[in-house]
Amino acid sequence: EKGGYDHFMLKEIFEQPQTIFDSLRGRLDAKNGTLTMGGMREYADVLSNAKRIIIVACGTSWHAGLVAEYMIEELCRIPVEVEYASEFRYRNPVVGEGDVIIAVSQSGETADTLVAIESAKEKGAIILGVCNVVGSSIARLSHAGAYTHAGPEIGVASTKAFTAQLAVLCLVGLKLAADKGTITPQRFQHLLDELDQIPEKVAVALKLDDQVKQIADKYKDARDFLYLGRGYNFPVALEGALKLKEISYIHAEGYPAAEMKHGPIALVDDQLPVVIVATKDSYYEKVVSNIQEIKARKGKVIAVVTEGDQTIPPMADDVIFVPAADEMVAPIISVIPLQLLAYHIGVLKGLDVDKPRNLAKSVTVE
Ligand code: M6R
């Protein structure tokens, strides 16, 4: 059942070229320049006329929501907020007609997310569910939806569900933008092409497995890790840190790289591994300065960079090259080595990576 892999987590990491493809299939037609989102059709007008969008989710799904915030604001010029479902629900939020809630959940059964959308629905909001489990509670409660097609995810640490969420949320953003007329035909076609190429590029990134394993061996005894990224890669840093915490029980924090100087830089010394997601995008130059700040304090820099990068490698202690992609879809690729890093550190420490202590696959209590 693990298909020849030692753990479900590794199997699921390696399934990603296929699961992303499955999540795009039947929707994206890059050749003909079309995008069909069947589950959004009935509510197309309401959705594209939303006066704001609130994304509610927990854990890894919340990280996918953060990426979607950047995507949707850029593509659709609709204000987007991303909320932890548990916080959103309990603070008596201002929400009602004209608001669209996007609920992101692999299981579709997470109690915090479910309760949050129930109350928003009562107040007149329209709910768009992005779930992986067909017929799940959140999917059933939603007015409209776009399923991820990642297949069953067994490993407690979410991997393939996350990349499927990113792909589907990008499709949702593109659909809304096309309906609203906020995207040029050229940019629309370009992003369809970029998405179309993602499964292949993820397959290339998976070839880094052996290299990442060596890096894991080098840093597995560290007490703390810092993960940094900016823009679209900021949530990737959060996700990398969460994976490491869950699987290896090493304390890790994710931060937007520019926030370093407002506090966390005090933690940097020659014992601290700092994973920096620094692919070529509009934030690149800024991230290079952030790397210099860390090196000046003797931190160990593990950099995820774009193939062909010649600036960062001489500055970093370890370099991981990933295929180039438009910054909007780049997180789908840059998260792959971070999933592998957490996996290998967990395994090298002799831990049960598929069932980490204290965690349940779906959290059905509030
Ligand atoms: O099923 P959901 O996507 O609603 O689950 C949300 C979180 O419980 C989940 O992402 C959790 O954080 C994972 N263990 C992360 O790997």
UniProtKB/TrEMBL annotation:
<dbReference type="GO" id="GO:0004360">
    <property type="term" value="F:glutamine-fructose-6-phosphate transaminase (isomerizing) activity"/>
</dbReference>
<keyword id="KW-0677">Repeat</keyword>
<keyword id="KW-0808">Transferase</keyword>
<feature type="domain" description="SIS">
    <location>
        <begin position="43"/>
        <end position="182"/>
    </location>
</feature>
<dbReference type="GO" id="GO:0005829">
    <property type="term" value="C:cytosol"/>
</dbReference>
<comment type="function">
    <text>Catalyzes the first step in hexosamine metabolism, converting fructose-6P into glucosamine-6P using glutamine as a nitrogen source.</text>
</comment>
<keyword id="KW-0315">Glutamine amidotransferase</keyword>
<dbReference type="GO" id="GO:0005975">
    <property type="term" value="P:carbohydrate metabolic process"/>
</dbReference>
<comment type="subunit">
    <text>Homodimer.</text>
</comment>
<keyword id="KW-0963">Cytoplasm</keyword>
<dbReference type="GO" id="GO:0006047">
    <property type="term" value="P:UDP-N-acetylglucosamine metabolic process"/>
</dbReference>
<keyword id="KW-0032">Aminotransferase</keyword>
<dbReference type="GO" id="GO:0097367">
    <property type="term" value="F:carbohydrate derivative binding"/>
</dbReference>
<feature type="active site" description="For Fru-6P isomerization activity">
    <location>
        <position position="361"/>
    </location>
</feature>
<dbReference type="GO" id="GO:0046349">
    <property type="term" value="P:amino sugar biosynthetic process"/>
</dbReference>
<feature type="domain" description="SIS">
    <location>
        <begin position="215"/>
        <end position="356"/>
    </location>
</feature>
<protein>
    <recommendedName>
        <fullName>Glutamine--fructose-6-phosphate aminotransferase [isomerizing]</fullName>
        <ecNumber>2.6.1.16</ecNumber>
    </recommendedName>
</protein>
<dbReference type="GO" id="GO:0006002">
    <property type="term" value="P:fructose 6-phosphate metabolic process"/>
</dbReference>
<dbReference type="GO" id="GO:0006487">
    <property type="term" value="P:protein N-linked glycosylation"/>
</dbReference>
